[in-house]
User: What shape does this take?
Amino acid sequence: MIMREGFRKYRLQIISSFAGAVAGFLYYKFVGCASGTCMITSSPVNSTLYGAFLFWLIGGMFKDQGVKQKTTQVNDKENF
Assistant: This one.
């Protein structure tokens, strides 16, 4: 029960984080770092985690915007 509520609350961030992990790994695989001195792209773990973290943040930006729209719609209905 609690797990479902947590997933519903963060589902956009979880899904976008998974997509970011895949994108980070694909970036390592196809672009990568030839010299091995790049901090992020020299290791598949670093690249995958960095992509997941960035997409988690991006997913969080859209989540907050949706919550604000719902609350303003509810407030507008109450005023009528």
